[in-house]
Design brief:
Rossmann fold, Four Helix Bundle (Hemerythrin (Met), subunit A), four-stranded parallel β-sheet, four-stranded antiparallel β-sheet, 15 strands, RNA-binding
Length: about 450
RNA sequence: GGCGGAAUAGCAAAGUGGCUAUGCAGUGGAUUGCAAAUCCAUCUACCUCGGUUCGACUCCGGGUUCCGCCUCCA
């Protein structure tokens, strides 16, 4: 049983074999930090977090690198609008991003290189490309990559250079030798942050940042490179061109791209202004509910964000936790068919929806058998994909809710209801149940007494 | 125009050349003072038209519709 991953470049599932046995180098394109992260960003974070967790479960030592783009046109523009410095803006947004990740139970990457801290590597790579004849400085101080000098350009996206030119959506620019050429170094305008270089003051283009950082952190040739679908062209195509021309080595073995989060069947994005930030959604839904929602579809498929879908996800996660509330987990039972299926489906290109189905089958078995070892196994397998990390009671009490009631006030009402029930005053008892129900608080009676939960 | 991806029950979402996916919701029953949770049973499927096949939702071909990329984008 071995891991198979769908490689965007070959458009098929391939058996995964790391370059160095037992070690995996993985680079994922991170965020441009000019605003808060939205649910689309959350998907990339959660998907690749799940990939890393599974690779580690398989015993690989993973070096997970995810960059931060902390210099770019949008950042400059936003800082100016806000009347704050670029560092203040990016520093704030990076802190917010880390807070979002922590809330979502996303493990921090092993390295988070920032573009502004890799200027030497970036300039060196551009220099090499110019020296080797793959790039040229233009008269205005920009430096461009000569797309036609790389014969294999288009091999990742399956695009043909001639078709691209016919598309006529490329920037009109008489400074470039060819309309397809893309910028490696941008001459700075007045009042823009800049770094000195042999081509004059400027800053790097977006594509070269990733090539330089990935190469510096993981070497010229590494195992996995990931990102959102929209990055496969032109960003990743350009990375291949830059890196392979500069180093002369094959850049990446496996390309992974995750699908979009949609709103009303349209891509969620900042430019369309139809996005929900992670923070907004966390106000309404528990982080594990959001994580479940994102993993309940295959990572390459689109997911549609909606209130209904999140509510359904909440009920589903609740079913898993109900089993754990019913049976306190003990040490996980070893060598079960459940675990074998779970591993098998995860090894099949990270089929998390099928992995969930295994979890539900397991939950059903726990409900029937009351087997504490199986409950432990449910927790163990859930944890492998970043779910079921909480105690069941804590989970049910920590659902975001509109309730104004304090825990003490709720307990108070439960005591009052207990007395009413003892006196067979069921009218008052039901009144209290309804009152709490309106606040989103559910009461659960059992032989051991009454407990409550939110949601 | 070029390249790529989708169409599965009320909703969400996997998958398979013949064998119950799974979850939410619904229905009937057990259980409960009433509920919740749970268990048992149960109703809803594979866009369309052809072809291959003993047999296709699954393979092949033609349609239709939707989405993404080709410009910054996760």
């Amino acid at each position: 049983m071995s891991l198979h991953i769908f490689n965007t470049e070959s458009r098929q599932k391939e058996m995964f074999t790391p370059i160095n046995p037992n070690q995996v180098g993985m680079y994922v394109c991170g965020i441009t930090v000019y605003d808060l992260c939205h649910i689309g960003h959350a998907r990339v974070m959660v998907v690749f977090d799940t990939v890393v967790r599974h690779l580690r479960t398989l015993g690989y030592s993973v070096n997970y690198v995810r960059n931060i783009t902390d210099i770019d046109d949008k950042i400059i523009k936003r800082a100016l609008e806000n009347g704050e410095s670029i560092q203040a803006l990016t520093g704030r947004m990076i802190a917010e991003m880390h807070a979002d990740e922590m809330a979502m139970n996303v493990l921090r990457p092993d390295e988070e290189p920032k573009a502004t801290e890799y200027m030497d590597e970036i300039k060196l790579m551009i220099e090499t490309l110019v020296q080797k004849g793959f790039a040229y400085p233009a008269k205005n101080g920009d430096v461009y990559f000569k797309v036609k000098s790389f014969e294999q350009y288009g091999r990742l996206s399956g695009k043909n250079i001639d078709d691209l030119e016919a598309g006529a959506r490329v920037e009109v620019n008489n400074i470039k030798q060819d309309p397809m050429d893309f910028v490696l170094w941008k001459a700075s305008k007045e009042n823009e942050p800049s770094w000195n270089s042999e081509w004059g003051a400027g800053r790097p283009g977006w594509h070269i940042e990733c090539s330089a950082m990935a190469t510096k952190c993981l070497g010229n040739h590494f195992d996995i490179h990931g990102g959102g679908m929209d990055l496969s062209f032109p960003h990743h195509e350009n990375e291949i061109a830059q890196s392979e021309c500069a180093t002369g080595e094959h850049y990446v073995n496996t390309w992974m791209h995750c699908g979009f989060v949609r709103i009303d069947d349209e891509k969620m994005s900042k430019s369309l202004n139809n996005f929900f930030t992670i923070k907004e959604v966390l106000k309404v839904f528990h982080p594990e509910v959001i994580r479940y929602f994102l993993l309940a579809s295959h990572y390459r498929s689109p997911v549609n964000y909606s209130q209904e879908n999140l509510e359904s996800a909440r009920a589903s996660v609740g079913r898993l936790y109900s089993a754990l509330e019913l049976v306190a987990p003990a040490k996980a039972t070893q060598n079960t068919a459940f675990e074998a299926s779970f591993m098998a489906v995860m090894n099949d290109d990270f089929n998390t929806p099928k992995a969930m189905a295994v979890l539900f089958d397991l939950a059903k078995e726990i409900n029937k058998s009351k087997d504490a070892g199986l409950a432990g196994l449910l927790v163990k397998l859930g944890n492998q994909i970043g779910l079921l990390e909480q105690d069941a009671t804590t989970f049910f009490k920590s659902q975001p809710s509109q309730s104004e009631l304090t825990d003490e006030a709720i307990e108070q009402l439960i005591v009052e209801r207990k007395e009413a029930r003892a006196n067979k005053d069921f009218a008052r008892s039901d009144e209290i149940r309804d009152l709490l129900s309106e606040q989103g608080i559910e009461l659960l009676d059992s032989s051991e007494g009454t407990t409550w939960r939110k949601g």
